[in-house]
Amino acid sequence: MKDTDWIILNELYKEPNLTKVSEKLYYSQPSLTKIIQNIEEEFDTRILLRSSKGVKFTLEGEYLAKRAKEYLKFMEETKNKMKSFKYETRGKLNLGSSYTYSKYFLPDILYNYSKENNVNFNIITKQSEDLFRDIHNLDGAFIHGKYDGNIESILVDEEKAYILSKNKIELEDLKNMPMINYSTNNKTKDILNNWWYQNFNSEPTNQIFSGYVDVAWQLVNRNLGYVCCFLSENFINDYGLCMMPMLDENGEQLIRETYFIYSKTQDKSNIFDDFLEYLKTRVIKK
Q1: What is the chain's mean pLDDT, rounded?
Q2: Is 123 left (phi over 0), alpha (psi -120 to 50) or beta?
Q3: Among the four 11, 217, 218, 256, which has the fewest Cβ within 10 Å?
Q4: What is the pTM of this model?
């Protein structure tokens, strides 16, 4: 039997009149009669007796009509419960993230995941080395650079290194221009410092500390110096700054990798497993 068959039986039991029920359910009376006949054939029994006053249910028909009411109630409750799952909080994920990843990438990840999963998030923003040390207190973390330890690491992004300046410059010009520094993790500092000393024999000139890399971009836009930084492929150059790729001794552009890490030994919740699967299928770099 179809759901519509159960609805017809339920309505006929409430109002035993074929004409009225056919009008209410938008059936022609012959179509409604045919459906009743099909139900009787399916159960090999008579369920309705017809008279000039309307229809009367047989004993078997009354039983079937009561079951129809129960079935429709069950289906309504089931559908409502299934809908409610979308609005019930399944739990909370404690995630760590570096500042730049939190600002430019993590919001989209959490937004898209939350459209399909009602999960609360607690986000801790720290330097990558601090997140690595605190990973036992987190479900997972997005960090810059590769760290060795009792963790699983999955590559999620790669960023290329550039020198940003207000106007077009040559590499040799850097020795006489102020370098604008910003807070970043030690592995990123090592990559940039190694590049500098591979190209120059002296310290950078008149270094300025800006706190955050996006503040450094603003200072570059004011022509206060240049900045060396890593940029994702979807970086939007709002200030129209000149971008010079930073190349190593082999002519390859410097790369910084971003990983999602989590503890090997810590128990994983079903929510975390689901989030990890989401990252693997929707986010993680192939």
Answers
A1: 92
A2: beta
A3: 218
A4: 0.69
pLDDT attached to residue 196:
97
In the block, tokens 């990843």 appear at 101
Q: What is the pLDDT of residues 215-246, one digit of tens each?
A: 999 999 999 999 999 998 888 999 999 999 99
Does 1-85 match 90-155+257-281 in CATH topology?
A: no
R_g (Cα) of the chain, nearest Å: 34
Bridge-partner residues for 121, per DSSP? 93
Of 87, 226, 110, nearest to 170 (Cα)? 226
Q: Is 250 helix (H, G, I), strand (E, B) or coil?
A: coil
Question: Which residue type occupies 248?
Answer: D
Span 158-254: which CATH code? 3.40.190.10
Q: Can you tell me which residue has the tokens 């910003």? A: 182
Q: Where are the domains of the chain?
A: 1-85, 90-155+257-281, 158-254
Contact 146, 186 (CB under 8 A): no
Q: How far is CA 277 from the centre of its chain?
A: 10
- Whether residue 187 is predicted with pLDDT greater than 90 in this model: the reply is yes
Q: Which CATH class is domain 1-85?
A: mainly alpha
Helix axes 29-43, 3-14, angle to 10 degrees: 110
Pick the CATH number of 90-155+257-281 from 3.20.20.210, 3.30.300.30, 3.30.420.40, 3.40.190.10: 3.40.190.10
What dihedral angle (degrees, nearest 10) is formed by the CA atoms of 209, 213, 215, 218?
A: 110
CB atoms < 10 A from the CB of 182, how many? 21
Rounded to 5°, the CA angle 37-39-44 comes to 90
For the beta carbon of residue 276, count every other beta carbon within 10 angstroms.
18
Tell me which amino acid residue 226 is. Y
Contact present, 271 and 90 (Cβ < 8 Å): yes
